[in-house]
Design goal:
Layout (H helix, E strand, L loop, with lengths): L1 E11 L7 E6 L22 E3 H9 L8 E5 L7 H15 L5 E5 L4 H7 L9 E4 L19 E4 L2 H7 L11 E6 L4 E6 L4 H11 L12
Parallel strand pairs: 2-4, 4-5, 5-6
Antiparallel strand pairs: 1-2, 1-3, 6-7, 8-9
Helix pairs in contact: 1-2
Iron/sulfur cluster binds next to loops.
């Protein structure tokens, strides 16, 4: 089955506990004002990727260096069938390895369950709700105060119950640099993007386009 994929990365340390595989899905119709990932909104044919290829990519990583999988976007619930196939494959790959699956969604829990009935039972924890720029927060792994961390399975409750009200202790952003792009992984706090922009400029890196402005 085809999935609309923005990117894959490992290790991700800013979106959930431990060292994780990050899966960014492409396509979001929610359009939260202030979204830092506007580059994931529009899905085109070039984003089509076989779910099996994503699973093969993950299988090629060292499993000892994977504590969990984070699925984000884009909006995962806009691809319910592909998401179901993806989490089914991830559950198979992670069997006996104690990986948890954490999924971000811009819709509330009830809407996610309704949209993704096949995927939901295989997801250990969700972070739900749209980003609201007017409700800044220091809650761990969340971009605004309305967003809820919802442990869903037994593993999810073991791993996330005690973190539901936890605050971030340090910036939640990883910076990756390649030949053409500076890529921020994580949830920028208030002022983080401007600060990173300034620091990069001081080091002679000038950003031509950024994903957090139209
Ligand atoms: S914050 Fe998430 S749900 Fe909101 S527009 Fe951006 S990608 Fe979509």
């Amino acid at each position: 089955m085809t999935l609309r994929l923005a990117r894959l990365h490992h290790p991700v340390t800013a979106l959930g506990p431990g060292r994780r595989v990050g899966i960014w899905l492409q396509g979001c119709d929610i359009g939260c004002p202030g979204c830092a990932s506007r580059d994931t909104w529009v899905a085109e044919a070039r984003h089509d990727t076989e779910v099996g290829d994503v699973l093969d990519w993950i299988e090629a990583r060292d499993p000892a260096l994977i504590d969990g999988i984070t699925i984000t976007g884009g909006e995962p619930s806009e691809q319910p069938d592909a998401l179901a196939e993806l989490v089914t494959g991830l559950s198979r790959l992670g069997a006996g390895r104690d990986w948890d699956i954490l999924c971000y969604t811009g819709v509330e829990l009830a809407a996610f369950r309704e949209r993704c009935p096949a995927a939901y039972p295989l997801i250990d924890a969700l972070i739900t709700g749209p980003f609201r720029a007017a409700e800044p927060t220091d809650l761990l792994w969340r971009g605004s105060a309305n967003q809820q961390l919802v442990p869903c399975t037994q593993l999810g409750r073991q791993r996330y119950d005690h973190l539901v009200g936890a605050l971030r202790q340090r910036p939640q952003v990883q910076v990756q640099v390649d030949d053409e792009q500076v890529w921020l992984i994580g949830i920028p706090g208030r002022g983080d993007l401007a600060r990173i922009h300034r620091d990069l400029r001081r080091q002679g890196i000038r950003l031509e386009e950024v994903s957090w402005r139209p």
